[in-house]
Design a protein that fits this description.
The chain is of the alpha/beta class and 188 residues long. It has helices spanning 8-18, 36-44, 61-71, 112-115, 117-121, 141-151, 168-187, and strands spanning 25-31, 47-52, 78-82, 101-105, 125-129, 156-159. Bound molecules: guanosine-5'-diphosphate and magnesium ion (MG). Residues 2, 4-10, 85, 129-130, 132-133, 161-163 line the site of guanosine-5'-diphosphate (GDP).
Length: 188
């Protein structure tokens, strides 16, 4: 989840390519219109189903259920759901996710966790993306982190650049750790 343009699709494309996820990662792409992001994900090498919400500002559980039937992910794979871009409605709907990630990019302002607290309260991890742009924008990563922690003391925070690759190793480690924890929990 994130505001439009924070880098959800770019980060996913890079993750699929760098981790060589092949048939172990599947994607549901939510947007009001177009299949653009679905095509980008397919070109990166992952199976994807595009869901268009029309006038809707978020995905709901029924859309995800129908998308999953079509996507048909294999056992022990990771399914990533890219929600419609905005920091309001997607926070309010349970899609059955195991973990929720919010991306805040450095061009959006470090006050956004305070202005959209429900989104940051609903997330397990905040990725601060576009850290390559920090020299050019007024964005204080430690202030953004403090703001996120003030609305959600349990949120984890990682700084990344989906463009330069800085910080992505920590993101990949987080993803691997979450996947093995989920597989262990499912095996019990
Ligand atoms: N400088 C910079 N640009 C980025 C980064 N990540 C994404 N972008 C750019 O931000 C724009 C929106 O990215 P996109 O992935 O479509 O965002 P989405 O709407 O959240 O899926 C595109 O022009 C990307 O190239 C980054 O880490 N650094
Ligand atoms: Mg996108």
């Amino acid at each position: 989840m994130s505001a439009p343009g924070a880098g959800k699709t770019t980060l996913l494309e890079r993750t699929i390519r760098d981790m060589k996820t092949g048939a172990s990662l599947f994607v549901l792409e939510g947007d009001q219109a177009t299949a653009n992001d679905g095509e980008r994900i397919r070109a990166a090498g992952a199976a994807v189903v595009q869901i268009n919400t029309g006038t809707g500002c978020h995905l709901d559980a029924d859309m995800v259920a129908r998308g999953l039937l079509e996507l048909n992910p294999s056992a022990n794979s990771v399914v990533v759901v890219e929600n419609v871009g905005n920091l309001v409605c997607p926070a309010l709907f349970d899609l059955g996710e195991r973990r929720r990630i919010v991306i805040l990019s450095t061009t959006e302002g470090d006050d956004k966790p305070l202005k959209y607290p429900h989104m940051f309260r609903a997330a397990d991890l905040m990725l601060v993306n576009k850290i390559d742009l920090l020299p050019y924008v007024e964005f204080d990563v430690s202030r953004a982190t403090a703001n996120a922690l003030s609305v959600n003391p349990d949120i984890s925070v990682l700084g990344v650049s989906a463009r330069t690759g800085e910080g992505l190793d920590a993101w990949y480690a987080w993803l691997r750790q979450e996947k093995s924890a989920a597989c262990e929990a499912a095996a019990v």
